[in-house]
Design brief:
Elements lengths: L1 E2 L8 E6 H12 L1 E6 L6 H10 L6 E4 L3 H13 L3 E6 L1 H6 L1 H10 L3 E9 L5 E5 L4 H6 L8 E3 L4 H18 L2 E7 H5 L1 E6 L6 E2 L51 H16 L2 H4 L2 E4 L6 E6 L2 H4 L1 H9 L4 E6 L1 E3 L3 H8 L4 E5 L6 H9 L4 E5 L9 H15 L1
Parallel strand pairs: 3-4, 3-5, 5-6, 6-9, 8-9, 13-14, 13-16, 16-17
Antiparallel strand pairs: 1-11, 2-10, 6-7, 8-15, 12-14
Length: about 400
């Protein structure tokens, strides 16, 4: 681990929204190239980046569309920069092919999705959480992915740094799944001094140029990287490739390569998974949340507890990889999981899969456009207790 560049860090307490806090987190993490295209409600991220980058040695380019943005950052990553793009809704859909390319070429980058209500143009200025399954499975083929879900402007700063660190550690695209409410919420954000911010440097090859293999994994299944233009012999392609990066379209090569792309995340999942628990031990009901819904659920949980109900709260900080092990452990102890989401039940499916019938799984759906009424979550908790008796 290294520390952040002191030139780029706005140390101190600030009252800013989640979008702007994300921008500051990216700068503190060492991001110096951002390409983007305006789309509500993510535009404020790149507006602040465009304003701040000239003072920290960064480059921002407004591209002609989201497709161009998501490929420009990959070129910059191979040129040695930490890179990011930002989008929402329809733009996220357009970027799916390049998320797959980044996974296949093991290109470290961060993609911020400030979620809004869909499908299609939907409600451009209003919140939703409908992109969660798309984040995991949106591009074709098999690959591992990491996705984080902040629930406050402070976490937008802190977790953006974490997103860049994970991208560099595992050479993988990391998705930052905000939502409109968190993106536009203004709260106090404390930015520490640069020497208190740990950043993960790029995993660079340090041996001879002759022995370098662009996709030869280390013990943790992740290869080292080099910078294009430094004289290394390498080939970067979306085709199935061998450890040199050369196309090798055979069944055996495909099996080895794709298995590693999956396993470098799957086998390290316990190191990557991150969640917060409150009152889970001894609970009859556990409410599973992420993003803004973790906050709207709090009054419902408090009301249920005031009535003597044993209710715990598990909040996903990292949504992908999913905390399968913890949900399985809890499913043998609790009576039900209650999962409020600003969609019609996406992460609910993961909870249900891991619970495997040992505990009920109850979705509290919402089409987006606003947040849940806590009363609806409370009633789902209460009904789950009654139904489990």
């Amino acid at each position: 681990m290294a520390t952040a560049d002191p030139i780029g860090v706005l140390t101190g307490a600030h009252f800013i929204d989640g979008d702007h806090a994300c921008s500051e987190g990216a700068i503190a993490a060492g991001c110096r190239f951002v390409a983007g295209y305006p789309i509500t409600p993510s535009t404020e991220v790149v507006e602040r980046i465009a304003e701040r980058f000239p003072f920290v040695g960064g480059v921002f380019i407004q591209m002609e569309d989201e497709i161009a943005s998501s490929i420009a950052i990959q070129g910059a990553a191979w040129a040695g920069k930490k890179t990011m793009t930002v989008t929402s809704g329809p733009g996220f859909s357009l970027m799916m092919e390049h998320i797959g390319l980044a996974a296949m070429t093991e290109t470290p980058l961060v993609l911020v999705d400030v979620q809004r209500a869909g499908p299609s143009t939907g409600l451009p200025t209003m919140p939703a959480q409908g992109d969660m399954m798309q984040a995991r499975w949106g591009s074709h083929g098999d690959y591992g992915i990491i996705a984080l879900c902040p629930n406050s402007p402070q976490e937008c700063f802190d977790l953006t740094i974490k997103a860049f660190n994970l991208a560099e550690q595992y050479r993988v695209p990391v998705l930052f799944m905000m939502d409109e409410c968190v993106g536009h919420m203004i709260e106090r954000v404390v930015i520490p001094s640069a020497d208190k911010i740990e950043v993960t440097p790029r995993r660079m090859h340090t041996g001879s140029k002759e022995e370098y293999l662009a996709f030869a994994p280390k013990a943790d299944l992740v290869p080292d990287m080099v910078k294009a233009g430094d004289g290394y012999h390498m080939h970067v392609t979306g085709l199935t490739h061998d450890e040199k990066g050369y196309p090798n379209m055979t069944v055996g090569t495909q099996a080895r390569l794709v298995r590693r792309l999956v396993d470098k995340i799957k086998l390290n999942a316990e190191k990557i998974v991150d969640y917060r628990e409150d009152g889970v031990e001894g609970a009859d009901i556990v409410v599973v949340t992420y993003g803004i819904t973790s906050r709207t659920a709090l009054p419902a949980i408090e009301q249920a507890r005031s009535e003597g109900l044993k209710v715990g709260h598990l909040r996903l900080v990292v949504a992908w990889p999913f905390p399968e092990k913890r949900i399985r452990e809890l499913s043998s102890k609790v009576k039900a999981f209650v999962v409020p989401e600003l969609n019609f039940g996406q992460m609910t499916l993961e909870v249900e899969r891991c619970a495997a019938g040992r505990a009920n799984t109850v979705c509290v759906p919402h089409a987006g456009g606003t947040v849940h009424n806590p009363k609806d979550i409370y009633e789902a908790i209460r009904d789950s207790v009654k139904g489990a008796k």
